[in-house]
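Internal tracking record. Fields below are filled automatically when a chain is submitted to the structure queue. Please do not edit lines marked as system-generated. If the sequence contains nonstandard residues, flag them in the REMARKS field before resubmitting.
Queue: standard
Priority: normal
Entity type: single polypeptide chain
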Amino acid sequence: RTPRRAVMSAVARSAQGTPLDGAPLATTAVVIAVAISFALALAANGDFARVCASPRLAFEHPLSSYHRVWTSTFSHGSFPHALLNCLAFVPMASALERSIGTTHFAWLFATFAHAAYALSASAATALWMALGYRASYESCAIGMSGVVFALIVCETNVNDVERRSVFGLFTVSSEYYPIALLLFIQLLMPGVSFIGHAGGIAAGWLYVRGYLNFLLLKETHVEYLEKLAICAPARALASFVPSNADRGARPNAEASSTAFPAFSTVRAIPTRMSEVTRNAFAGNFPGQGRKLGGDGSTTGEMANLVRVDPRALDTLVELGFAEHAARRALQECDGDSQRAIELLTESAAHDANSDEIV
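SYSTEM-GENERATED OUTPUT FOLLOWS
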C-alpha cells in the first residue's frame, strides 16, 4: 500500500475504541480536519511553506496570509505529532463541548486559534524589533499545540487538584503546570515552537481572566445560528450538543468553578446546594449544553472564576479549611463568609459520616 493509504488506515484503526468514540460533533470535526490536512501534506511531500504560521508574513502581509491561522492549526509535521496533539485535545475538548454546546465550542476553538496565532506572531515581532532576534520572526510553525495549551490553562483553572505531575517525573503547583509543561517539552524537544506554545498559554489565560469576552458569542447569536436551515443537518446528528442558556446559569454575573463540570474533581457535595449545582459538581449534564456564566458573555464569565474577597478567603484558610474548598464555598455563597463556613462545616460532617459508614 502507498504511505498515504497506510497512514489513513492507521488513523481509522486508532479511532476505534479510543476517546474519539462518542466525542461531540465539533471535537470530532477537528480531529477529522487534522487527519485530512495530514493526508494532503503527505500528497504534497510535506511542503508546509504555504500553510505554516509565519510571524513575518503575519506582520508584513496580514490579509494575504490570514488563511495560515487555519492551515497552520490543522497541519502537522508527522503522524506522531498529529496523534499526540489529538490525544491531548479530545478529552478536554469533549468535556468542554458537552458543557457549553457545539456552537459555543466551535466558536471558542476558532477564538483560541486566532488568539494564539496573533499573540505568538506579536511576541516574535516584538523580539525582532526590540532585540534584533529574528529566529522566531522568520520561523514557520505548524500544529494544534497552541489550542491544546489554551485548553490546558482552562482545565487547570477549574480543577481542584492542587499539584500536577509532569510526565510522572515531578509535580508542580497546578497554577504553574502549563508553564512547567511548556518548559519541559522545550527541553525534551528544542525544535518545537516555544513562541507558539506560549501564545496558546497566553490565549487561555486571557480567556480565563475574561479579556476575550468581547470576541465570544452571545446566547442570542447562538440561538439564531442553530435555527438556521443550513445548520439543520448538524442539529440532526446525535453528536451535536445544542446550547441551553437556562440550565446551569448562575443567578449573578459571577461564574463558579463548576463552569467545566467534567474537568472538576468530584468532592463531597453539601446538602444545601441546589440540584443544578449538585449536578454540576458531579459532572451530570445529560442532553443539552449549558451556559458557563451569568448575565455577560455565555462563555466569557470565567473572568470572575477566582475573584473572591481575598480577606474572606484568608479568614477561612486560617480557620483550617483547604484553600480550594474555601474558594469554591465563597463562590457558591456569593462571598458570604458565614454561609461559606456553614457549607464547609456540613461538607466536613458529610465526609466524616461517609468514613464511618465505610
